[in-house]
Write the structure tokens for this entry.
Amino acid sequence: MSDNDVILAVDTVHATYVNAITALNGVSFEIRRGEMLALLGANGAGKTTTLKAISNLLPAERGQVSAGTIRYDGGDVSRRKPGDLVRAGLVPVLEGRHCFKSLTVEENLVTGGIGRGGRRAEINADLERVYSYFPRLREKRRTLSGLTSGGEQQMTAIGRALMSRPRLLLLDEPSMGLAPLIVQDIFQTLKKLNRETGLSILVAEQNSAVALRYADHAAVLENGVSVLSGAAADLRQREDIRAFYLGQQPPPAAKPSHLHAVA
Ligand SMILES: Nc1ncnc2c1ncn2[C@@H]1O[C@H](COP(=O)(O)OP(=O)(O)O)[C@@H](O)[C@H]1O
Ligand SMILES: [Mg+2]
């Protein structure tokens, strides 16, 4: 694979909070352009910290990358401000579906376009595009976000990210707290965006079943360390992997060995 095919390269990243708490202890994976990658791991494995490291948001939480490198489009992300990364197309959707509750759905979406410095005509075209992917948001465009459902708020958070015209979208546990049918709906839309527009997607999930159904590849974290990576279709068939690394069933006697383990 040529370097040019890789939109994001995370290489042996270590990260700490308040110079004391080790959160990441060797995280490595790559995302090719146009790929959807699932970052899997149990609660506390380091998924959120990894996404914040990629977006250069750790310093704002008294955290830091203490070793390793993260390159987006070939450039070191630690040299760029989070806002500059967003303008370069690296756009995070943080955990907990942050919306402005007292703004309408449409006003929330528009805030995503303003960050890009878009003109009104461009913003309107982008709104239409978001509504074509999330018809529910068109129906709710004049409703205050605080009065919409959890699923609609998650769609609004994703829609707002789309308004800044991402090339790599980072999503932190979009399934959290949502009913299974809504989760399917959201993942189907993400996959459609990925297929139709070539948008690269990194989705962190504890819900490995749904993430592995839609992702192309997956990388698994355990206690801040990359332990496994492979094609999603391969990992999906391995119940033992889900049990061992994702804490979804009692662990089997031995660690699974067939898939490519990260050194
Ligand atoms: N702001 C923080 N300050 C100190 N420790 C943190 C902070 N955020 C996360 N951690 C710790 O870092 C580790 C990884 O957490 P996190 O990245 O949130 O995992 P995940 O998203 O996979 O649940 C955990 O041990 C967690 O307690
Ligand atoms: Mg998390």
In short: The mean pLDDT is 91.
